Amino acid sequence: MLVMKLKLVPNNREIRAPTVTPHFYSMKKLSFTLALVLLLPVLSPGWGFFAHKTIAQLAVYSLPGSMQGFYYRHMGELVKKITAPDERRESDPAEAPKHFIDMDHYGSDPFGAMPKEWDKAVAKYSADTLRKYGTVPWVVTEVKEKLTEAFRQRDTVAIITLSADLGHYVSDAFVPLHTTENYDGQLSNQAGLHSLWESKLPERHIADYKLRSKPGSYLKDPQAAIWQVVQRSYGFLGATFDMEEEVSRKYTPETKYTYSHKYGKTRRAYSDAFADAYHEKVGGMVMNRLQLAPTMVASMWLTAWKDAGSPDLDLLMKKPSKEEKEKLASELKLWKDNQLVPQNQLLAMQKEKTVERPDEIKSAVDMAPAPTEPEPAVAVPAPAAQPAPVAAPAKAKVKAKSDDGIKQKTKVKAAKTDDGWN
Q1: CATH number attached to the domain at 45-254+272-349
Q2: Whether the predicted model's global pTM rises above the 0.70 cut
Q3: Which residue in 83, 119, 182, 249 has a CA-CA distance of 20 to 30 Å to 43?
């Protein structure tokens, strides 16, 4: 019997054609496989929005003073836009492969086998194969070149947009699960691992992390630098899977997972208790990747700026006020003292203001209560009742006959009462 191996696809992955493997399964095992498919894990894109926003903010702090003022002025916009690559996956089919590269697809020595230059890699494997199994290192160098051109053109809008995109792709390269075909543990009975590692762990334990990153520096070879990041991430895969399996031995399915039902589907996620136990094993790894990513993002921004001739970014904005300079200095001190989280200065932890849409009709629960009539301060006595107007006689017709035999008609018409409408 032919059994199809189905891959549960996270939001940041392309939907790949299922592979068909000849194998003989009992009906019992087949039923179990289908049950696993129906239990959809709760998945998240990229690092998770929380971690991506954190990396963007820390990258701004990691820049030299000649760039920092400009990037700090636009830091709120950068933090918001760094999640845009994940958001446009739904509308752009070509977006998904830009976030990962499945190195284990290329054999037992993938980094020795894979040419680092795009043209040579295409000649060896074909562009279709490369896009199927991910292109993140090449996308990073491509977007870096676009950012360099934006600096040359002094295009503020393009600089911020491309800086956010570049920061996103660089950050994704720091996630071990972005370097393997088993990206969600779906091939090792660990489905849901993707979201656990890169979203739930940092969101629950960000206060435990040291967030001060090293300053960014000029990269003589950006291509070699990003490939080194991918290779180091790949090296963490063994511990990522092994530690999950080790912790799982202490849990039953009832304590390991939580379940939710929505739109006729059952969704499964790791429980908080399991997440905390797993974090004790891999928390140092997660913090390491989260701490190093801002430095590389800042280094890529700095390299693009220098390659463009180091244009004066102060000319692209209004002179910063005294208050703005003081605010930046205060945040830099908190960052160096690892006090951003305790002092609630980490933007990813702050709730965004909801933008009201004039054409939005809210539910009855969310609607603002109807305004109530204010009670009069002083009771005013009611005016004396006016006497009711005397009703005029109803209209009548009277027929009479005079003595001379001539008929006479008399009409009586009632007078109208003033009802206030005239």
Answers
A1: 1.10.575.10
A2: yes
A3: 249
